[in-house]
Amino acid sequence: MKRLFIIAALLSALACAADVFLGTQRINTDSGITLGPQGIAKRYLGTQLIFEASAEEEVLLTPAMTSNTTPAPFVVAASSQFNASDWAAWRAFDQQAVNGWSSVLSAGTHWLSIRLDAVRTVTRLAIDQRVEYNWPNYYVTEFELYYRNSSTDEWAYFGTYNPAAPVAAGDTTLDTAITGLQAQELKFVFTGNHTQNGSASLGEIRLYGH
To answer: Is the pTM of this model over 0.85?
Structure first.
């Protein structure tokens, strides 16, 4: 009987356990594997690692831009800018809630584009509406997303998105998961704008992925 007890204890010690990590922090240990969008699951047999599921952590893909070409090699472009200081194209990617981009104050096909440092996998897209003067009358209601891997490629259509109307200044009116998008350049063509003159305007575009 004692021998059977010892054998059972040894088998129990060798049982598989899963360590679940968020980044480098272990957040759970149990008998199954749970893999979250930013986690890494590891399964051990005793002390031997027998399984590791890797998942690249979702991060903001753009730095805080300080001009249309700074920091390099990121490049922001637009169909137009209301001016080159307060409403420049790069202000849609400067990680500052207090400003944003605006096109010229007239109707037309308005767009923004950004070239990333390399071909990246985009997993999430968010839009923050503007904070400045008269924000309730200047926000995006619809845009089409295009992508390409080189400036010599043709733009390819990816999807159409409809941000909600902001309730307060600077509201995040779109935050959506994206699957199946790998690109170095992305273009946002604004097909719906709640503005008084047909212009396009927003606070911030946030791209996440790896």
So the answer is: no
